[in-house]
Amino acid sequence: MAVPCVRAPRAEGEETRKRLADRNLLSGEYEIEVEDGTIYIPLGPSADLEALGEQFDIVHREVTPRETQTLPKDILGFDPSYERLGDIAIIDEDTDERARRIADAIVDSDLPIDTVVNRASPIEGELRIREWDVLAGEGTETIHREYGCAFELDIDRVYFSPRLATERRRVIKQVEADEQFFDMFAGVGPFVIPAAKQGADCVGVDLNEAAIEYLERNIGRNGVEDSVAAIHADVRDIEGYDDRADRIVMNLPHSADEFLHTAVELAGDDCIIHYYDIQPDTDPFGPGERAIRDAAEPEYEVDVQTRHEVRSYAPHDLNVCLDVRLRRTSG
User: Fold this and answer.
1) Strand 180-183's sheet: what is its strand order?
2) Contacts with 162 (C-beta within 8 Å, 6 or more apart), sequence order
3) Residues 264/326, Cβ–Cβ less than 8 Å
4) Whose CA is closest to 27, among 69, 55, 88?
5) pLDDT tens by residue, 265-311
6) Residue 110: which pLDDT band, with cuts at 50, 70 and 90?
């Protein structure tokens, strides 16, 4: 079967492999192959081929299956569903016996996983964290790599979703050098740190003290100390940043509308807001658009530039993003 591979000159093979490995994009099922001075590096299932195609030469090619690697499905007889976050595997199983079978298989496989956790609660509270059952390994701290950035975090203390990597990349690709970038709910930095690497001057605010602790560590880890300010606060209470932002991220679905007046106060004369919402699929964008207009008009002209479905959130509910341009009116 043909699988997606990164094609590169052999002389660049190790550098290319390391770049992909740092982002957890290498396939564990197929061998890297070299032919006529060209290296072919198979990609794993989490690879975003469209995004990678802008950085690498992607081809589909028949490659040799890796015979020496044992995967969880080889042990279980079925392919379990799990997410990888650094060296943690996250499962979502209702039955304890099945959860432990899967956890044992993941640990006994050849995957580079040290810890397996099962979701024990929904995301709860204003800090957006959940409870976990640790089924294998010790602790819930890890380092997650994403598009050339490294994020240290503890899933027991902060919110982080690896599923949103592609969406974060979509936003970061729009960032321009020297713009004033403001993340109202910054977490451990998955928006502000790559934005800083794009040359933006960034501010990240979060109510969760642990998230800001990790954000400060990640600022140093990624070498953007001069470009990111980390603030532990309710964003509605901070002072000194009004009328400055060129771009604002509002990734707080379910309640971002409660912070729109603050976003308008932060916005400069010409500002893009990335507003995240969860709404029924019968009208996923309408409530957000109306809330933004109510908060911004008539001080700003409101132009909805993109109505984007991020993912399915629940049956009949969608996680969406509105990319909205605010331009201050002369009046």
Assistant:
1) 228-232, 201-206, 180-183, 245-250, 267-280, 317-328, 300-314
2) 83, 84, 85, 144, 146
3) yes
4) 69
5) 999 999 999 999 999 999 999 999 999 999 999 999 999 999 999 99
6) confident
